[in-house]
Design goal:
- By secondary structure, the chain is α/β, with parallel strands linked by helices.
- It folds into 2 domains: 21-133, Zincin-like (2-Layer Sandwich); 135-214, no CATH class.
- 53% of the residues lie in helices and 7% in strands.
- It has 10 helices and 4 strands; from the N terminus they run E-H-H-H-H-E-E-E-H-H-H-H-H-H.
- It has helices at 36-40, 43-58, 60-71, 78-81, 112-131, 140-153, 159-164, 173-189, 194-209, 222-240, and strands at residues 3-5, 82-85, 91-96, 101-105.
- A 4-stranded mixed β-sheet has the order 1-3-4-2.
- The radius of gyration is 17 Å and the shape is globular.
């Protein structure tokens, strides 16, 4: 299973290797858009679009994040803010902060449950981008914080997903999974040492792991996510009546 990477950012024109912010993983970002007719022949693209629509219509994780972003002044439109593209073999998705677009790796996402997690993971990055002044490219702690939140809240580290990866957790397993996946995501999109990534994650871990917005809880299952979505809607109704 590929990783979810936060944001591919445009390599600065004239820049060298040191300016590589992860766009090499998303080669379609720099290509001209294909015509609808050409795209329609590629079943990967069609399948990706269908799975995306299913996620947006049925996933309580995605629905909560979309509503929270709308209330924060960042309405998400499926045709504008999501793009199904071919990616490098190691990633499943990314958030392109330069265009506020979520990239979905149509060649690497083959199951609906995987699409649900990737969309949720990247929507958490988009939510963080909307609500905070995140310096994705110069401040590795900002990136680390959003990666911790995305791994913690997206379902990436549920017990069932970890068992599917043949990782059988002991006490503190969830925190270990979140830390490991945050470090991996940073290393996937930034040319930094493992030590640098680990240091950034460890320095912000407690604060960012405990930042549960907009869920209000760690959604360990779809049932938890549904409850969190219901609580979020009721919280808004309560606030509207104040």
């Amino acid at each position: 299973e590929g990783g979810e990477a936060a944001p591919p950012a445009a390599e600065e024109k004239g820049g060298g290797e040191e300016d590589d912010f992860g766009y090499r993983l998303f080669p379609d970002r720099n290509k001209k858009p294909q015509s609808f007719l050409v795209r329609s022949f590629f079943t990967f693209h069609n399948r990706c679009q269908l799975m995306l629509r299913m996620t947006l219509e049925t996933s309580p994780y995605a629905q909560l994040l979309l509503e929270a972003m709308k209330q924060s002044g960042c309405t998400v439109f499926s045709d504008r803010h999501f793009s199904c593209e071919d990616c490098d073999g190691c990633v499943s998705g990314g958030f392109d902060s330069a265009t506020s677009q979520i990239v979905l790796c149509q060649n690497n996402i083959r199951q609906q449950s995987h699409m649900n997690r990737v969309v949720t993971h990247e929507l958490i990055h988009a939510f963080d981008h909307c609500r905070a002044h995140v310096d994705w490219f110069k401040n590795v702690k900002h990136l680390a914080c959003s990666e911790i939140r995305a791994a913690n809240l997206s379902g990436d580290c549920t017990l069932m997903n970890e068992i599917a990866r043949f990782k059988f957790g002991l006490k503190g397993h969830h925190q270990t999974c979140v830390r490991d996946r945050a470090i991996r995501s940073i290393l996937a999109v930034r040319k930094v040492s493992k030590e640098t990534a680990e240091k950034a994650v460890d320095e912000v871990f407690d604060a960012c792991f405990n930042d549960l917005e907009p869920f209000g809880r760690i959604p360990h299952s779809k049932r938890d996510a549904k409850r969190a979505y219901r609580d979020f809607q009721n919280r808004d109704r309560y606030n509207a009546n104040l």
